[in-house]
Amino acid sequence: MTASTRSGDLRGTEFVDANLSGSRFVRTDLSGVVMRAVELDGADIDAPWLLSGEISLLVNGVDVAPFVEAELNRRFPGRADRRAEDPDGLRAAWAMIERAWTAALDRVATMPAGTADVSVAGEWSFAQTLRHLVMATDTWLRRAILDIEQPFHPIGRPNAEYEADGNDMSVFTTTAPSFAEVLEVRAGRVAMVRDFLAAVTADDLTAARRNPWAPEYPETTLSCLHTILEEEWEHHRYAVRDLDAIEAGNGVPADDA
Fold it and tell me: Short name of one Pfam family for this protein (predicted)?
């Protein structure tokens, strides 16, 4: 498959009678795209920002975003509580995501050795996903909420934009840790969130915080916790999707430097 990079600017391009079948768009801005008389059989769209409630996706004139949101909440019990507003609600929401990840971990344990390091269609492996969630916790709990000067654990895995935006990568390991190491660090980060929520108060939730990526945007403890829960549920969705694909015979070992 021919690859294009972010240097290619196709804004405003009109495609007429073009054949884009089999194309793959990754980290691509398609907002405002208009498609007419298109063939979409087998198309697969994954846009987590669609679920923020502020973005629409019209299919034949129907905004399908609310239907997608409702179906995901049905498939993943507890997901609907990720935007809880009070301490008790947040504690219950975190307990549900912990249960969901425990089930996924139990599933991986019953699958062939090496499953945690299998990548599907170039996506992160299960182990890489857990490493990214370590970094997400470090970013939004340890850095944004607790204001720890050096919050990142070396096995954390940034997303592609992190390095592209000029951030220091030296804190992160350049070799893949064992799955056992990943599980140990991940369990510690899960416990950190659980312990923080056990003591958080309603007043704590309103405290002003700095957005770790864009300081000009105001945050609160509550909004940071919502981001953690969003990260957890979205990556859980990706992880179980890919476990389904692996069980169906798809996937290759992850390339992890």
Answer: Pentapeptide
